[in-house]
Specification:
Glutaredoxin, 8 helices, globular, binds glutathione, about 200 residues, Glutathione S-transferase Yfyf (Class Pi), Chain A, domain 2, alpha+beta, five-stranded mixed β-sheet
């Protein structure tokens, strides 16, 4: 398998999941602006949508869309327990959280990564959007943590960790959401996470 990634982007969630299951995989960094990979390949030929993550699997198929890729990774090693068994209510809860992280929390951060700087009203509107979704994660963790599905760490936590942590890089911080702050801190200490952060050049070895 090969993971196409951008340091600190949502592809980091897949990187973490691959480490969690002890997968044998390669990494290739992508410059999404230039649509070039570090080996010089045309990335738009790999993922026509131009974004990361993309994961090539052993028969050469390219998987995209973070929630799908994360579940694929989890399902390649069920004994690691990163996703409940398909068809159970627990798996539906995983879908719910992956969908929430992808379509609500992740997308709420979009304006902060726009090419041009935000005006003050745009910034407040974007911050309010993030805050509302972060409050949901905070209350979910408060009601039945320590992870999004309760006692068991899943790929939804790999993804939520990466996205929630962006708040620390866009000037929002996590002080308003103590359960999320503790969660990010706790997940950030997992060996699979530390290893991925080091490999992406985001933490010292
Ligand atoms: N729907 C896609 C969204 C992926 C996405 O938003 N990727 C971002 C990084 S987190 C990206 O590559 N954006 C292009 C860029 O940064 O230039 C998914 O779920 O995988």
């Amino acid at each position: 398998m090969k993971l196409y990634y951008k340091p600190g982007a949502c592809s980091l969630a897949v990187h973490i999941a691959l480490n969690e299951i002890g997968a044998d995989f390669e990494l290739e960094q992508v410059d999404t602006t230039a649509q070039k990979t570090e080996s010089g390949a045309d990335y738009s030929a790999i993922n026509p949508n131009g974004y990361v993550p993309a994961l090539t699997i052993n028969d050469g198929e390219v998987l995209t869309e973070a929630p799908a890729v994360l579940q694929y990774v989890a399902d390649t090693r069920p004994e690691a327990g990163l996703a409940p068994v398909a068809g159970t209510i627990e798996r539906t809860r995983l879908h719910k959280m992956l969908n929430f992280v992808a379509s609500e929390l992740h997308k709420a951060f979009g304006p902060f990564f726009a090419p041009s700087p935000l005006s003050e009203p745009e910034r407040s509107a974007a911050e309010a959007g993030v805050a509302r979704r972060m409050a949901f994660i905070d209350s979910t963790l408060g009601e039945h943590g320590p992870y999004l599905l309760g006692e068991t760490y899943t790929v939804a936590d790999s993804y939520a960790f990466v996205v929630a942590n962006w708040a620390n890089f866009v000037g929002i911080g996590l002080d308003r959401w103590p359960n999320v702050a503790a969660y990010v801190e706790r997940i950030g200490r997992r060996p699979a996470v530390v290893k991925a952060l080091q490999a992406e050049g985001l933490a010292s070895a």
